[in-house]
Amino acid sequence: MRTLLRPQFFAVIGVLLLSGCSQSLNAPVEYYQFEQTIKPMQRSSTDTIAQLRVTTVSLRGALNNRGIAMKLDNNQVNAANYHLWSEAPDQMLTASAHQALFTALDNWMVVKGLPVITDKDQQSYYELEYELHHFNGDNQGNADISGLWRLYYTSFEKGRSLKEIHYFSEVSPLIDDDYEGLVASLELNWQTINKQVAATISALSHE
Questions:
Q1: How far apart are alpha carbons 185 and 180 in whole angstroms?
Q2: Structurally, how many domains does the chain consist of?
Q3: Using alpha carbons only, what angle is made at residue 44 by residues 41 and 50, rounded to the nearest 5 degrees?
Q4: Which InterPro entries does the entry mention (predicted)?
Q5: Is 77:144 a contact under the CB 8 Å cutoff?
Q6: Model pLDDT for residues 57-94, shown as the tens digit of each residue
Q7: CA atoms of 31 and 113, how far apart (whole Å)
Q8: Is 49 part of any domain?
Q9: Is residue 112 part of a domain?
Q10: C-beta of residue 100 within 8 angstroms of C-beta of residue 195
């Protein structure tokens, strides 16, 4: 098992960042993404009870960086130079959340973003916002996704109102002690969070 994410690794990375020597290593750049399997699914408005619109995930500060983030001892977060997300994290997380919620909420019309409203029926919908404060590994060998989500409801008669706010924190040991293990662990945490969100939203249909 590789030991890239142990405390010694962070100490070495810190020295390299401060000295600028990391630029001279000529290490190959490696790209990562969530391995979420896409399953054939379809849904029509006539078979659903409500519409849920998933807005683009918001990440605090430098977390929305192509370099995979690591939190160090002194509250410092560093972004890797040669281990990068294959796309911007906010886009990857939004696509993953949309697919997870679409799968779990089989009687909801789950869409990304805010599509054009074409009739009165479409002016009543739920809207989900994620705000991530942590999206990183740490020097204790964990993957951490923490933050909050908000659920709004918009109706033609009353406009937009806030329904619920939930804080969450999913911290789990790495599957493997390397960047691949960190990415896989972050994905599992994100899936867990979205399953919890789906369970909460699904309960709305029984109110």
A1: 9
A2: 1
A3: 105
A4: ABC_trans_aux
A5: no
A6: 999 988 999 999 999 877 889 999 999 999 999 999 99
A7: 26
A8: yes
A9: yes
A10: yes
